[in-house]
Amino acid sequence: MENIQMLLVKCTPIVKAGDKVKKGTKIAEPAGFTGANLHSSVYGTVEEVKEDRIIIKPDEEQPEEYEMIAEDTPLKMVEEAGVIGMGGAGFPTCHKLDIDLRAEGNADGYVLVNASECEPGLRHNIQQIEEDPSKVLKGAEYAKEITNATQIIIAIKKKNQKAVKVLQEAIKDKDDVKLHLLADIYPMGEERAVVRECLGIELEPDKLPSAAHAIVINSETCSRVAEAIDERKPSFLKNITVRGQLVGGNEAHVFMDVPVGTSVGALIERAGGIDGEYGEIVLGGPFTGRATELDAPITKNSGAILVSIPFPDLHGAKMGVLVCACCAGEEREKEVAEKMNAKVISVARCKQAVEVRPGAPLKCERPGNCPGQVKNNLQFKKDGCEYIIIGNCSDCSNTVMASAPQMGLKVFHLTDHLMRTIGHPLYRHLKVSKEVSQEIDF
After folding, report:
1. In angstroms, rounded to a whole number, what is the distance separating the alpha carbons of residues 404 and 322?
2. CB contact at 8 A, 221 and 237
3. What pLDDT digit, counting tens, does each position of 273-315 carry?
4. What stretch of H or E contains 331?
């Protein structure tokens, strides 16, 4: 078994080289409000403590047993277990749950379970629900209890029919749990989009779901909440999708309960290995993931590992970059442009992308519901662009296409090389109705 690398994301190490650790041994503590406890995912010996990671050499034998967290209040156990948002954001779940959703006389409070599997091509959240929804539901019930909520609403895309049927059966006797079906549109999993679709409340970009008397919690995160409380289990495992240009085809390989700190390369090998030449390896989803290397470790909020086909060569063509709040950002778009051998000469921002505070990531004013982009396309044309690269949502990509081709601008989407790899339709024209969203009562 290869070395495990535990990244110190906003954490302070509490172990040193030579220390023996077990599964569940706490090895780092939060270094601020947005940090969370970090636990070893293996039995082994700490080889080195670096500035950004702890390297552990695993023992030959790896017992199933783990060091349990202490019994305490449910909220305290979630904190001690180091549970974070596993949908990608990585915010400490204990802080999200530390709220009374019915304070100040509010009649209702909502736990909105995000089971949308927002990023295209990923499958681990849906597969977990299909195979065993009980732990997800138990975690959601704990979240309801902790936050004093009155109702649980599970948001899931209508296209996932098997998972929908499994959930319908699982909640048929639960009066406080409902399903809300979503359209297959990106980014239906953005938390303000989940609030809008489930509750009909449009939140401003600077508002949290708590403004709608709600919290939004990822489905896998729910399962880790249940493990922390019922099994006194630290959060040191991750479900992950591996997909792309792999030996055996481009279908999704789902690995459940992978030790955090396992390398990207090890998981690619488990999925069959890379098939020939490739463009890049992405850690995360097609929209928000970033290029990585084979020796990089997965973390508690890693969503996927994607191996792409080679990039096309644009031979130095002039390119404009349209920056959107729905993707990994300007730097990532420029990186992909460079990998296509394009020369970026113009940059514009989606008209709905706003900066809530200086230096903060961009936020979309109405995620998934976007107006036209004629003004930006006119800028690109004026600046002499031949191509543009966009990272926009389904609806906004559609509006780009309403005018860009008529201006002679050729469009690439940030996700094109990954969508082509997995056989997914490219993000260009919106062909799915935005009106699919609906609630199901039982």
Report:
1. 12
2. no
3. 999 999 999 999 999 999 999 999 999 999 999 999 999 999 9
4. helix 330-339
Using alpha carbons, select from 288, 333, 287, 338 the residue that is nearest to residue 312.
Answer: 338
226/251 same-domain check: no
Report the predicted TM-score, pTM, of the whole model to 2 decimal places: 0.95
Distance CA(161)–CA(165), nearest Å, equals 6
Of 288, 307, 326, the residue at which a domain comes to its end is 307
Q: Which structural domain range is residue 243 located in?
A: 237-307
Q: How many CA atoms lie within 13 A of 314 on its CB side?
A: 22
H helices of 171-296, in order, are 191-199, 219-230, 264-270
Domain count, the chain: 4
Q: Is the dihedral of CA 202, 86, 359, 377 positive or negative?
A: negative
Give the CA distances from residue 30 to residues 27, 36, 402, in Å, rounded to whole numbers and listed in that order: 11, 5, 48
In this prediction, residue 440 carries a pLDDT of: 46
DSSP string across 77-124: HHHHHT-B-TTTT--BHHHHH---TTGGG-S--EEEEE----STT--H
Span 201-236, pLDDT tens digits: 999 999 999 999 999 999 999 999 999 999 999 999
Q: Which pair of tokens denotes residue 111?
A: 């736990």
